[in-house]
Amino acid sequence: MPHSELPASLYTAEQTRALDQAAINSGVPGFKLMQRAGHAAFDRLRHCWPDLRRITVLCGGGNNGGDGFVVAVLAQRLGLQVQLLCVGDEHFVEGLTGEALQAWNGLREESIPYQIFAGQPFTGELIVDALLGTGITGSVREPFLTAILQVNRSGLPVVALDIPSGLCSDTGAVLGVAIRADMTVTFIGVKRGLLTHQGPEHVGELFFDSLRVGDDVYESVEVAGFITGADDVSHLLPPRDRATHKGSCGHVLVVGGDFGMGGAAIMAAQAAGRCGAGLVTVATRAEHLSALLTRYPEAMAVGVRSGTELEPYIEKADVLVVGPGLGKNAWGEQLLMKALSSGKPLVLDADALNLINHRGGFGQLKGSNWVITPHPGEAARLLECSVADVQADRFSSVVALQSAFDGVALLKGPGTLSFDGDAIHLNPTGNPGMASGGMGDMLSGVIGALMAQGLSSGDATRLGAWLHGAAADRNAELNGARGMQATDLLAQLRLLVNGM
After folding, report:
1. Which CATH superfamily is domain 231-497 in?
2. What number of CA atoms fall less than 13 Å from residue 408's CA on the CB side?
3. Which residues contact 325 (CB under 8 A, 6 or more apart)?
């Protein structure tokens, strides 16, 4: 999902309403905010579709509909042909209150005709979705259900005001049915559900407008999380000193690669090297050493048969990446238990998480310097719930994962989330081309390399997710998303960690 430059802060629906009220309390009338929202959306719409001549505006009876009324007025004043469809019953107008009623009165002064939606064809070249805002609870009901389905079947471009109707602004879940927009213009605060779960599939290109709300308003309301961005790279990975040497850039030990899965450990190691780790060692099955050194000769490669044989290599490492291709047999379990008891910073992924789950969860195994990186299926097993439960509220799920072991939890998927016990961070990068084997192994190596270079586990996790997704985005721009392989990211990762 492409998006314009977004502010760093994320908000829930309740927090956004608090921002609205704080802005009003600061002296900006609510109707003035509504007018600014309508202007912001219409200006963006005209910029993207400059030759537009006919427009259909679908409005509900709340403040989201009021924003739509403002857009309809602006469109007619500019000479566009406006089809205004109000979704509700014959008492639609009588139900309008507050700012929405003020916007309606302004619309009637312009003598803009309207109809109650009854399935009539859309006459516009573009549809403005002003049906349902952030206040929706429960599944979408009629007549909104029929209207949304007709919009999605129309094939016309759609601009959603604030949020696509039917999308939960807190979780990104589709509430039965939701508008699939080509563009969404969101106001005052970026709603966290726009960027995760099913949000990216429905939002289209995302734009933000603060409606000229003052900094004092934002300072008065707590945030729900933060978006990781490109600026974090330069902040967290400044240029290296001239005296830097390999020993000062950290030593990553990758533990994994059982029979038939040696490539996973190799890819994690390559990612760690390309992201700046000074030294990389791979502890794997002896049978994989030739392939490993052929593919990645810069790595130190050791064959280990047991946890005892792993001990001296653990002692030399700064960070352990455990799990890529580890397997679920006795060999992998021995290596994992030795790593868990080491006291070293750990990145736990893939089979490391599966083995922990087989042992009954984390139990007493906890470490504040650990990072776990499950996908929704692994998260569901760790939390002893269904994948649907995990996805229904990804924000609550990542908090529950972190509380289970006292480290940093990263929950993969569109809008990957990480939580370090203090703040939730959302990663906006990535694309469907990443749906291929080995991507998770690469991410583990990236995070391990950043930790080895001195970043905190929380910063390494959130920045690692951003770098991983941004590398995939660049590769997709160059070569397309379909057919992308995990190792295709290596060249872009190196450029990104150097701010290029």
Report:
1. Ribokinase (3.40.1190.20)
2. 31
3. 256, 257, 258, 261, 262, 263, 264, 265, 284, 350, 351, 441
Beta strands 190-191 and 251-255 are unpaired
Q: Where are the domains of the chain?
A: 9-226, 231-497
- Positive or negative CA dihedral for 315, 320, 325, 329? positive
DSSP-assigned states of every residue in 230-257: THHHHHHSPPPPTT--GGGG-EEEEE--
Q: Is 485 helix (H, G, I), strand (E, B) or coil?
A: coil
- So what's the architecture of 9-226 in CATH? 3-Layer(aba) Sandwich (3.40)
Pairing status of strand 417-419 against strand 424-426: antiparallel
What are 427-442's pLDDT values in tens digits?
Answer: 999 999 999 999 999 9
Q: Please, which pLDDT band fits residue 113 given cuts at 50, 70 and 90?
A: very high
Q: Which amino acid does the sequence have at 297?
A: P
Q: Give the pTM.
A: 0.94
Burial label for 81, CB within 10 Å (0-12, 13-18, 19+), is middle
CA atoms within 13 A on the CB side of 66: 21
Give the span between the Cα atoms of 166 and 173, in whole angstroms.
9
Query: Strand 9-11 relative to strand 225-227: parallel, antiparallel, unpaired?
Result: antiparallel
